[in-house]
């Protein structure tokens, strides 16, 4: 039995090449329990700052964070998720 490596194939439709322009400018704080639902179902989430959007990307360490979301989060009382 032999194995063979298939060449990389780009399955994106023509004209939709990925660029840095489609990367989020900054990331927002949203309720944890809504992230997976949005990513799977495509539903929209509401960030602490009021921005409404579908979750499409995960923040990496060092990613820029919305200053308004950060300010609101830092002023929330300590506690758990709902």
User: Which value, in Å, is the CA radius of gyration?
Assistant: 18 Å
| Spatial strand arrangement across the major sheet | 1-2
The biggest beta sheet, please? Answer: 2 strands, antiparallel
Amino-to-carboxy terminus distance = 54 Å
Can you tell me the residue ranges where pLDDT is under 50 for at least 5 consecutive residues?
8-20
Helix content: 10-25%
Report what the structure shows:
It comes from Amycolatopsis cihanbeyliensis. This is DUF3039 family protein. It holds the Pfam family DUF3039. Residues 1-23 are annotated as: Disordered. With 82 residues, the chain is an alpha+beta fold. The chain has a domain at 24-74. Helix content is 22%, strand content 7%. It has two helices and two strands. The protein has helices at 32-41, 67-74, and strands at residues 44-46, 52-54. The protein has a two-stranded antiparallel sheet with strand order 1-2. The radius of gyration is 18 Å and the shape is globular. The relative contact order is 0.19. Mean pLDDT is 76; it is low at 8-20.
């Amino acid at each position: 039995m032999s194995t063979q490596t298939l060449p990389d194939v780009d399955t994106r439709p023509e004209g939709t090449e990925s660029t840095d322009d489609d990367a989020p400018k900054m990331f927002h704080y949203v309720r944890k329990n809504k992230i997976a639902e949005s990513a799977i179902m495509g539903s929209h989430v509401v960030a602490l700052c009021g921005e409404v959007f579908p979750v499409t990307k995960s923040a990496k360490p060092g990613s820029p964070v919305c200053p308004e979301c950060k300010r609101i989060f830092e002023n929330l009382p300590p506690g758990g998720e709902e």
